[in-house]
Backbone:
């Protein structure tokens, strides 16, 4: 006497259709490992590497509201865009992002970062200059480190002043893999 | 004083209580209707979720909603309950009245009283809802009623 996958799916889809959910999420086994994808009505709010779903769900609830539910269907478009990206068939994501809860300086950095095109890199200093704070390279690094929506907001395209990879929330191997996918090879 | 436990994200609430809700509904309704009622129960819970004041006895809350849904779906199903062991229940108080009367009771007693006298559920069902035996459910309801009487309100 257990809830069948079909009944479970029906409920989750119906719940999403009410428009009442604060966040819909799913966990996807991507070519670069497990990713948690989460979206509000406003847009994609989270891509988490190697997620611990329970902790991620708690975090999403704290930021966006308690009505967080796993609804794979609601992430179909996001998953499709990412699949196309990983297959080298997509350079731009037409996915709105929701940066609610992100401090204003960090949000400013991330919005500017969205303009760094596919297949290119910039340094932390260049990004700091873009936002009109040329001396804030270190703060920019901190802002990127807490990017809630990596890959789609491409913090992997920001490198050290010597061209070194420096750091990445998902680990340097993933940063290297993403840049290689975009046709770049860095140390 | 007990520490207030935070209300869990809806996903966790749903995973924690969905089996109990489905089991409860399957005992009361035909299979297809039970599945429809299951969906309706959690949709109602989702609608009300942002109005939850605390996380005490969420299973009782979910079962209360499920029983309401079951009654709405099959209002004329025989309840199959024995005569309630209250003195003054010729006209059982409406669910809404009970909510007010029981507002100050400990969560378990409150759930037991509301499920017993608001929804006419038997103690075995209430025990399932509260995660306890039917005897414990009976005791919780009796204790709740005594407490209400002590305050001068007769249910």
Residues:
């Amino acid at each position: 006497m257990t809830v069948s996958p079909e009944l479970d799916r029906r409920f989750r889809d119906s719940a999403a259709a009410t428009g009442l959910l604060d966040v819909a999420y799913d966990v996807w086994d991507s070519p670069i490992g497990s990713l948690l994808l989460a979206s509000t009505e406003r847009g994609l709010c989270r891509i988490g590497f190697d997620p611990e779903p329970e902790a991620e769900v708690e975090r999403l609830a704290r930021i966006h509201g308690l009505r967080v539910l796993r609804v794979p269907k609601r992430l179909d478009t996001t998953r499709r865009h990412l699949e196309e990206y990983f297959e080298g068939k997509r350079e731009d994501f037409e996915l709105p992002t929701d940066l609610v809860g992100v401090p204003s300086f960090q949000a400013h950095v991330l919005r500017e970062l969205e303009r760094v095109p596919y297949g290119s890199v910039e340094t932390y200093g260049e990004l700091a200059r873009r936002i009109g704070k040329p001396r804030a390279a270190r703060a920019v690094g901190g802002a990127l480190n807490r990017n809630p929506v990596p890959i789609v907001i491409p913090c992997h395209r920001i490198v050290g002043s010597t061209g070194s990879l420096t750091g990445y929330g998902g680990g340097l191997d993933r940063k290297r893999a993403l840049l290689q996918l975009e046709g770049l090879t860095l140390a | 004083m007990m520490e207030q436990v935070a209300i869990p994200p809806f996903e966790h609430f749903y995973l924690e209580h969905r089996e109990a809700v489905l089991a409860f509904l399957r005992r009361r309704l035909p299979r297809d209707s039970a599945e429809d009622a299951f969906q309706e129960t959690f949709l109602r819970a989702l609608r009300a979720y942002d109005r939850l004041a605390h996380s005490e006895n969420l299973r009782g809350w979910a079962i209360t909603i499920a029983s309401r849904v079951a009654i709405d779906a099959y209002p004329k199903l025989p309840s199959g309950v024995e005569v309630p062991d209250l003195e003054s229940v010729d006209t059982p108080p409406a669910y809404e009245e009970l909510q007010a009367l029981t507002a100050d009771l400990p969560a378990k007693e409150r759930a037991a009283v509301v499920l017993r006298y608001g929804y006419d559920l038997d103690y075995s069902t209430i025990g399932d809802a509260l995660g306890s035996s039917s005897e414990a459910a009976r005791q919780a309801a009796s204790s709740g009623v005594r407490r209400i009487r002590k305050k001068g309100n007769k249910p």
Observations:
- The radius of gyration of chain B is 15 Å.
- Chain B touches chain A at residues 7-12, 14, 18-19, 22-23, 26, 35, 38-39, 42-43, 46-47, 49-50 (CB under 8 Å).
- The CA atoms of residues 113 and 141 of chain B lie 5 Å apart.
- Helices of chain B lie at 10-28, 31-48, 58-73, 95-101, 107-118, 123-130, 134-150.
